[in-house]
Amino acid sequence: MFGEAISFVRRNLSFVCVVVAANCALVAFDDYSGGNKSNSAQFFVSLSFGFFIQNAILNGDGKVSNLTSGMRGFGGYIWKNLLIILVVIGIGIGAPVAFGAASLSRNAFLLLCLAVIAMILPLLLALVGTWPIAGIAGSKSGLSAAFSRGKRGLVPTFLRLFAGLFLPFIGALILMTAATSMSYTADSIFSDGKLNLIALAILVIC
């Protein structure tokens, strides 16, 4: 998976740089304004990025080109992924509550919910992950067909997705922890009204 990611970045470097710059700008805006108003925009950028990756792989040689014409299946890809995310969040919160975890402290409850989500998200994507991308390939394949495909090779697919989704997140935490241990401020792009280059560099890497 890592090799495939490197290959895609190499073929689409300018496109990836634009996406990274856009996400960094959204995070910097939130940090500067002291809010979190751009979370939905970041999520939409990430989903759109995933769509163009899938489109490039399914309908071409792995290179993103002509963004305006290759939009077949875009609407279906977005709403199906949103539905998957909502189901994951519902299970991630509902399961701990059902087993009495609501009595835990706030931090412990949030940590437990994140742990459940970390397991459910790659599992659900491994089972029905081909459902959102069916429209890109021009197929009308439904949820049951995606589930049937997902059951085959479930364990290796789950492990690959778990690694691809959460190892970068863990790596980001390690970077921020290392920066903090060296007395660098890594959690704020702007510090005392000035641009924090260490935090900006970590953000770009993440």
Structure write-up:
The structure is a single chain. By secondary structure, this protein is mainly alpha-helical. Helix content is 71%, strand content 2%. The chain is built from eight helices and two strands. A two-stranded antiparallel sheet has the order 1-2. The longest helix has 28 residues, at 154-181. The radius of gyration is 19 Å and the shape is globular. The mean pLDDT is 83.
Give a quick summary of the entry.
This protein is mainly α.
Order of strands, main sheet, comes to 1-2
Please state roughly what percent of the residues sit in beta strands, choosing from under 5%, 5-15%, 15-25%, 25-35%, 35-45% or over 45%: under 5%
* Unreliable parts: none
What is the general shape? Answer: globular
| Average predicted local confidence, pLDDT | 83
Measured between the Cα atoms of the first and last residue, the distance is 17 Å
The largest β sheet comes out as: 2 strands, antiparallel
Q: What is the C-alpha radius of gyration, as a whole number of Å?
A: 19 Å
**Percent helix among the residues?**
over 70%
The number of distinct helices, counting runs of at least 4 residues, comes to 8
* Strand segment count: 2
Question: Structural class, from helix and strand content?
Answer: mainly alpha
